[in-house]
TrEMBL record:
Transmembrane feature ranges: none
Family recorded in the similarity comment: Belongs to the protein kinase superfamily. CK1 Ser/Thr protein kinase family. Casein kinase I subfamily.
InterPro entries, alphabetized: CK1_Ser-Thr_kinase, DUF7477, Kinase-like_dom_sf, Prot_kinase_dom, Ser/Thr_kinase_AS
GO molecular function annotation: ATP binding; protein serine/threonine kinase activity
Domain Protein kinase: residue ranges: 1-249
UniProt protein name: non-specific serine/threonine protein kinase
Organism: Triticum turgidum subsp. durum
PROSITE patterns, sorted: PROTEIN_KINASE_DOM, PROTEIN_KINASE_ST
Enzyme Commission code: 2.7.11.1
Length: 531
């Protein structure tokens, strides 16, 4: 970054010089966004050197916050709120999301200049497109739990979980920024260690709007609730978001921040005749600050077949249930555990020829598993209990040709992604307390797989995956998280109907209703469903 006094115009310029023989696509995109947002920006290309010329700005909101004793008035932050929303609306209208909204990236104009009270947004290094340039359609949803972009303190929960960035993420980060400027601290500050990102995200999900905004005027709580309940591709109602802060905006002479952009949005709002409060239906809140765990059962459409379930099964009674099922021609298709008791699903549609199982005090007993692999048995179901024990079921008659498994203290997405590249697919998952066990197999019959991982039941993500042709093939949950593997089979079934059900107790009252519709349990687990 170079600064010099312009000899003719008597103004200071800041030059960000990119030394490259040609303009890169990334530079072109970002410079065009900067120019669209900031009118005084100029781009000059001269042979082999590219210049991006921008105004020299003043202190950041972080600097101002520090200079004010690390506390800002709610009136000042309300002005910051409405102008920031206006700025983000302009950026979003160009098809981009910022990706790193925080106090350090909002700057005021230079002190003593006409723009000293004007707010600017800088640093588009993490900007990404939310809209396809070719079609103007929203980019497609995805989740990559191994990818995090942003600043941990202010990042949206969706950014923590590796979901594709969209407009809601900038607004959620803005909500955290505003509350920080008033309170001086956010509840998730102070976490350290390799799992810091996990702990911060968990805390964000567990902190309700009431708790987070308890020292802030009501508009900040309402703003937080609105933006954290937005859908992935939802178009924000910027005018309504700005209107939340009307009661906190003082007369022009006493405003510490200019709100020119917000006033323009307000003028548009004033021309609207609809009642914004009445036109929208209230949304179900997703972060209540009250964690809950439930049974999550998945049902697939099948031809009529015999299926049997057992639940609240003690260790000592496992053998008799399994033996009786085998006598009736049934094999275990999935297992789960809650409160150190087991649940078994047995049916006649597995295609297995024989089956063995082990109940062990070790979560996935390596020696026993390897011994069964030598006999051409493959893992077909696993579950763990909170006391650390596990139930492993291995079968003959599977299409698998090779298996690998991993036990991890956190969900092992990086390992899964590595194995995908080697031709493996997830075929079983289980948990014991907060430990994850994931089994992957070659020749599993899938053409593609994706993961949905969340600190609550990921309803939106699952529905988007269903719409793209994926179906849940494995599920598991801990007291903190729920994970779902969704797959596209190489051979699609005639009926692709799939339903999920969440219940506080084992769904014995619902299973028979599903059977009557030829829907059979395909996966079941007990884990986190609400925050």
């Amino acid at each position: 970054m170079h600064t010099r006094l312009h000899s003719n115009l008597n103004i200071e310029e800041a030059k960000d010089v990119v030394m490259a023989p040609r303009l890169s696509g990334r530079f072109i995109s970002l410079s065009m966004v900067v120019m669209a947002y900031h009118q005084s920006t100029t781009r000059v290309a001269r042979e082999t050197t590219t210049f991006l010329v921008m105004d020299m700005l003043g202190p950041s909101l972080w600097d101002v916050w520090n200079s004010m004793g690390q506390a800002m008035s709610s009136h000042m932050v309300a002005c910051i709120a409405v102008e920031s929303i206006s700025i983000l609306e302009k950026l979003h209208s160009k098809g981009f999301v910022h990706g790193d909204v925080k106090p350090e990236n909002f700057l005021l104009g230079q002190p003593g200049s006409p723009d000293e009270k004007k707010l600017f947004l800088i640093d588009l290094g993490l900007a990404s497109k939310w809209k396809k340039a070719s079609s103007s359609q929203h980019v497609e949803y995805d989740q990559r739990p191994d990818i995090f972009r942003g600043t941990i303190r202010y990042a949206s929960v969706h950014a923590h979980l590796g979901r594709t960035g969209s407009r809601r993420d900038d607004l959620e980060s803005l909500a955290y920024t505003l509350i920080f400027l008033i309170r001086g601290r956010l509840p998730w500050q102070g976490f350290q260690g390799d799992n810091k990102i996990f702990l911060v995200c968990k805390k964000k999900m567990a902190t309700s709007a009431d708790v987070l905004s308890c020292f802030c005027p009501p508009p900040f709580k309402h703003f937080l609730e609105m933006v954290t309940n937005m859908k992935f591709d939802e178009e924000p109602n910027y005018a309504k978001l700005i209107s939340l802060f009307d009661s906190l905006i003082e007369v022009p002479a006493s405003r510490p921040i200019r709100i020119d952009g917000a006033l323009k949005v307000g003028q548009k709002r004033g021309r609207m005749v609809v009642n914004l409060e009445e036109e929208e239906q209230p949304k179900k809140k997703v972060r209540l600050g009250s964690p809950a765990t439930q049974w999550i059962s998945v049902y697939n459409a099948r031809r009529p077949m015999k299926q049997r379930y057992h639940y609240n099964v003690a260790d000592s009674r496992l053998h008799q249930h399994i033996e009786k099922g085998n006598e009736d021609g049934l094999y275990i298709s999935c297992v789960a555990s809650s409160a150190n008791f087991w649940a078994l699903i047995m049916d006649a549609g597995t295609g297995f020829g024989s089956q063995v199982y082990e109940l062990s005090q070790i979560f996935l007993h390596k020696d026993w598993i390897m011994e069964q692999w030598e006999k051409n048995f493959y893992i077909t179901a696993i579950a763990g209990a909170t006391n650390g024990s596990s139930l492993v079921v291995m079968s003959k008659g599977t299409p698998y040709t090779q298996q690998s498994y991993k036990v991890s203290e956190s969900f092992p997405y990086k390992w899964i992604n590595k194995k995908w590249k080697e031709g493996f697919h997830v075929t079983s998952m289980g948990t014991a307390g907060n430990r994850w066990g994931v089994v992957m197999s070659r020749n599993a019959g899938y053409s593609d797989q994706v993961v949905e991982l969340d600190f609550l039941y990921p309803s939106e993500g699952l529905h988007r995956r269903w719409e793209s042709g994926y179906r849940i093939t494995s599920s598991a949950g801990t007291p903190d998280q729920a994970a779902f593997i969704l797959s596209i089979p190489k051979r699609k079934p005639l009926d692709e109907t799939q339903e999920t059900l969440r219940t506080s107790a084992f769904p014995s009252n619902h299973v028979k209703e599903k059977w009557a519709k030829n829907l059979y349990i395909a996966s079941i687990c007990y884990g986190r469903t609400a925050c």
